[in-house]
Design goal:
It is a single chain. By secondary structure, the chain is an alpha/beta fold. The chain has a domain of 119 residues: Orthogonal Bundle (DNA polymerase, domain 1). Helix content is 39%, strand content 13%. It is built from 14 helices and 7 strands. The chain has a 7-stranded mixed β-sheet, with helices on both faces. Strand 2, helix 4 and strand 3 form a beta-alpha-beta unit. The chain is globular. The model has no long low-confidence stretch (mean pLDDT 92). Bound molecules: S-adenosylmethionine. S-adenosylmethionine binds next to helix 3 and strand 2.
């Protein structure tokens, strides 16, 4: 099977591998399987999945979520040929249980998360995700991007974080979520600069980070010095790790026997979170090692299908540099 999904703004990562996993033999034997795409984006993966099932005479149903109203509108347009099969919701994926009553609480035969931002989001300067483009410091994936800085009811934007967080918080977020070795210098520069005037836009922030880097590091850096800092702030503002943990804690209750859970991550902390949760699902006892007799009553509920994560091929990375850091892990709920 050769499948491709390239929208004007976004190329779907590890597409063949995801479709292959979700079109398991068990799922091909279900009459009207249900799938959940928690990070619908432009619906590249989901549309291909529905098309591939259609080719073998199966009408699959899709529950698609995205917290970004613009992405959802684009996905809806891309999925128009599958109208009645698609149920799309503007929601963060950690809150998926809120929408299930609207579709009669199906058990899902397959679930997909393709984390991070889409190229559509990166390309729009007003969203403030990119240091390449001058835009307001926002970085909200949800409607919060429409807000002006700290307006209620939406919570933190990149602007409020960069201009309000104390030195230690800035340093910790940039170090942990950005895995940035120069986090201390960057946090110090941000705190110094904002004393002169608030840091207003992506260009100002990118310049501050650039000049905070020691000149030798700057000269040898493979990417723009602001890459990791922008990633850290985006992950913080959107609580991306919190979302993933909350989702993993609840999803298995909504997966059908033999159902597939496929997750693409782009960050080592996300990958570790998925790896650990899958391991927990696949283990009978999760008591700490020092406890001699099992007291947890935990039972194995799933099997891990990827001992090591699936990585994109060299060809895919050449065609789509964004795929470079992608890792796909797949688990299957026990029958
Ligand atoms: C990498 S894109 C998905 C691309 C999609 N798989 C495709 O092939 O078109 C990630 C999408 O997930 C959305 N997203 C990220 N975190 C989310 C969350 N916690 N809840 C819901 N949507 C989220 C983003 O708004 C973005 O549209």
């Amino acid at each position: 099977m050769t499948v491709t999904a390239q929208n004007a703004n976004h190329i779907s990562v590890l597409l063949q591998e995801v479709i292959h996993a979700l079109m398991s033999d068990e799922n091909k034997a279900v009459q009207n399987p249900w799938f959940m795409d928690g990070t619908l984006g432009l619906a590249g993966h989901s549309k291909t999945l529905l098309q591939e099932f259609q080719k073998i005479g199966i009408k699959a149903n899709l529950c698609g979520l995205d917290r970004d109203p613009d992405a959802l509108a684009r996905a809806s347009e891309n999925l128009k040929d599958f109208g009645g099969q698609c149920h799309l919701f503007e929601s963060d994926y950690a809150s998926f249980e809120n929408v299930l009553p609207e579709i009669q609480n199906p058990l899902f035969n397959g679930v997909l998360l393709d984390l991070g931002v889409s190229s559509l989001q990166l390309d729009v300067a007003e969203r403030g995700f990119s240091y390449h483009k001058e835009g307001p410091l926002n970085m909200r994936m949800d409607k919060g991007y429409l807000q002006k800085r700290e307006a209620k009811p939406y919570s933190e934007t990149a602007y409020s974080f960069v201009n309000k967080a104390d030195f230690n918080t800035l340093k910790q977020v940039i170090a942990e979520l950005g895995e940035e070795p120069q986090a201390g210098r960057i946090a110090r520069s941000i705190v110094d600069k904002r004393q002169e005037k608030p840091i207003e836009n992506t260009k100002e922030l990118a310049d501050i980070v650039y000049y905070a880097y020691p000149p030798k590091w700057r000269a040898t850096a493979r990417n723009h010095p602001a890459t990791r800092t922008f990633q850290a702030i985006r992950m913080y503002v959107n609580d991306e790790l919190g979302q993933l943990n909350k989702f993993l804690d609840r999803i298995l209750d909504h997966v059908a026997p033999n159902g597939i859970i496929a997750i693409i991550t782009f960050h080592s902390l996300e990958d570790r979170t998925v790896k650990q949760k899958f391991k927990e699902w696949a283990t009978d006892c999760i008591c700490p090692a020092h406890i001699p007799v099992c007291v947890c009553n935990h039972k194995k509920t799933a099997e891990v299908l990827t001992k090591k994560p699936i990585l994109p091929s060299k060809e895919e990375c050449m065609l789509n540099p964004r795929a470079g850091s992608a890792k796909l892990r797949i688990a299957k709920k026990l029958g």
